[in-house]
Amino acid sequence: MIPMPPCRTMADTVSIGAAKCLRFACERHFPMKPIGTVAEVVSGGIPDTSDPAMWDGDVIRVTPKDLGRPRTIEIDDSRRQVSRQGMPGRRLLPAGAVLLSSRAPIGHLGIA
């Protein structure tokens, strides 16, 4: 005997139809574009962790783990701070910059 898949309920059918309508409306009004065409994409780096002079300063260094913590969307603190000495060649992002994690966990958002 071949097992039959369960029948969809009316709620399932409505939910699937609503999702298709939402996807269509979004594609129509907000076309897909490469992110680099609508925003500047930058990534950070890690100062030498074995050099204590690079750490425990006043520069907030946001990691994907910091973005994943339950709190408000605004980021005003992080687990570790970097010293000004740990910043050469690295760029500070302005207040209001949108932060998006692209490494695990992927997709967490915050606003600097």
Describe this protein's structure:
The protein has 112 residues and is α+β, with helices and mostly antiparallel strands. The protein is built from two helices and four strands, in the order αβαβββ. It has a two-stranded antiparallel sheet with strand order 1-2. Strands 3-4 form a two-stranded antiparallel ribbon. The chain is elongated and about 70 Å long. It starts with 9 loop residues before the first helix and ends with a strand.
Structural class: alpha+beta
Largest sheet: 2 strands, antiparallel
Please give the radius of gyration in angstroms.
22 Å
Strand content: 5-15%
Q: What is the end-to-end distance?
A: 59 Å
Tell how many strands the DSSP assignment holds.
Answer: 4
> Counting H and I runs of at least 4 residues, what is the number of helices?
2
Strand order of the largest sheet: 1-2
Quaternary structure type: single chain
Helix content: 10-25%
Could you give a short description of this structure?
With 112 residues, the protein is α+β, with helices and mostly antiparallel strands.
How would the blueprint of this fold be written?
Blueprint: H1 10-29, E1 55-61, H2 64-68, E2 80-82, E3 98-100, E4 109-111
Antiparallel strand pairs: 1-2, 3-4
Which tags fit this structure?
two-stranded antiparallel ribbon, 4 strands, 22% helix, elongated
